[in-house]
Amino acid sequence: MDFWRDTLGSPTKIVAPMVDASELAWRLLSRKYGAQLCYTPMIHSGLFVRDFKYRAEALQSCEEDNPLIAQFCGNEPETMLEAARLAQDRCLAIDINLGCPQAIAKRGHYGAFLQDEWPLLYRIVHLLSQNLKVPVTCKVRRFESKEKTIEYAKLLESAGCKMLTVHGRTREQKGPLTGLADWSYVKAVREAVNIPVISNGNIQTIQDLERCLTETGAVGVMTAEGNLYNPAIFLGQNPPCWEPALEYLSLTEKYPCPNSYIRGHLFKLFHHVLSLPENNYLRIQLGSANTLTQFKKSAHVIQDLYEDYHNGHKTWSNCTEPNTENLVLPPWLCQPYIRDSPEEHLKKVMEKQNEEKTDVSKRLYEDSEGNPISRKKMKKLRRVMRRPEKPENSSDIPKARHICRLCANPLGLKCLYQLCKKCCRDKCWVETLDCIGHKIFTRTRRMLRGSTKGLSKKEFRKLAIKLNQKDKKML
User: Which terminus of the chain has a smaller tally of CB atoms within 10 A, N or C?
Assistant: First the structure.
């Protein structure tokens, strides 16, 4: 508990690590609205070690961004140690991501897809805890049984983990099947280990946070979506959405980040306003914005539309749910996003499928033999007809070919060197090579330097391919 109390300052209100969402500008906004501890987005340890530019962007910070924990993912103990050593002087702890359930984590074999490989996890945590100047923490998801979840937590504690964040959902609970997190698992882990435990899941309001602390006994509560839709969640406030949006945009001027991050944040802050049918044009406008000026314009348009309602100069009539007297928050206020339950989602999917089966007005598709097929199958057949040389089923390609030889990214299936595009570009630059599959022609450019002036991009590409084919024949 000394680490949580003395080093971190006993934080109870914590912003989760979020890919493309918990960048420096958003962390500073969250701290202004009551967050006591923030994490960096998940950092890929292999890329962090090899790529200086990625390293600078992934660990961007400043004096006000404290306390901060840097989170890494990976499956190679030595690489993770090297990455953590590069980051340890700029944060108070290194967190190991063992909870990401997304497809990219499955392809790269990290996050929650390591939770069954206990010897490897013990080695990673133990190696880092023994060789870093800062403590090592872990973020995990629960198993189906409490017994296995407790055993898992004890393993990480014995390996040297100094603080554990437990997400009350399983690896399979994601997307439309997310459902509710089970806090009883967090409580069971808290009672079984001797290190601080943070609870994650089901935090939509300040009342949820207080209830979670009481029910689980956790030292703190971490939230992701609750913070994204309402950055003032830790203050128990619901500000008009344009206020945090404009504050965030001001921070991005000082601490730049990709436009995709900004657009994602604004879509969540404005979610309830943009969900109204009459505001569909605003959704299109924000989706096409790609400069700070355009982003600010969208925020100001929403402010102009609803500020008079917020200040009481106009009366907003839609403040109750249909056919009820339940008061609801007006759409311009920051508020939680409530998903359908998995049962409701599956019911809607079944209803939609039944409607499609009974809708005779829908276009019917047939294969070459006249048999009725689905639209999806027809599209697949058309793709095969257009590219007969491509394997119909990607599973026919050996699985090892799907991963770049130098990093965990997917490789280009036409790459001559079995690399992803970035690694292939680096190899071609250093070794003066061409890769027709990735359309990288470093060797050709250097050979014909100055003599290709006036050629269009398409003409140069044809010339480069022709030269490569000629060299291949000579060999």
Answer: C
Residues 6+ apart with CB under 8 A from 218: 166, 186, 190, 197, 198, 199, 212
Q: Which residues of the chain have a pLDDT value below 50?
A: 321, 323-327, 394-401, 473-475
Cβ atoms within 10 Å of 77's Cβ, excluding its own:
18
Read off the tokens for 66: 């404290």
Contact of 290 with 56, CB cutoff 8 Å: no
- Cβ(273)–Cβ(299) below 8 Å: no
d(C-alpha 49, C-alpha 35), whole Å: 30
pLDDT in tens, 217-269: 999 999 999 999 999 999 999 999 999 999 999 999 999 999 999 999 999 99
The catalytically annotated residue of 38, 73, 100, 415 is 100
> What ranges make up the beta strands (E) of 63-174?
68-73, 93-98, 136-141, 163-167
Q: What is the pTM of this model?
A: 0.75
| Residue reference for tokens 């590409």 | 461
Dihedral-angle region of residue 257 (phi above 0 means left; psi in -120 to 50 means alpha; beta otherwise): beta
- Per-residue model confidence as pLDDT tens digits over 288-325: 998 999 999 999 999 999 999 999 999 887 655 454 34
CA 183 to chain centre: 23
Q: What is each CA distance from 203 to 165, 223, 456, in whole angstroms?
A: 14, 6, 55
Residue 117 phi, psi dihedral angles, 5° rounding: -105, 70
**Domains in the chain, CATH or no CATH each:** 2-238 (3.20.20.70), 239-334 (no CATH), 403-474 (no CATH)
Nearest to 4 by CA among 66, 93, 91: 93
pLDDT of residue 160: 96
CB contact at 8 A, 39 and 17: yes
Buried b (16+ CB within 10 A) or exposed e, 207-239: ebbeebeeebebbbbbbbbbbbbbbbbbeeebb
Extract long-range pairs of 344-347: CB within 8 Å, 24+ residues apart.
345/176, 345/177
Half-sphere exposure of 17 (CA within 13 A, CB side): 28
100 an active-site residue? Answer: yes
CA distance 453 to 460: 10
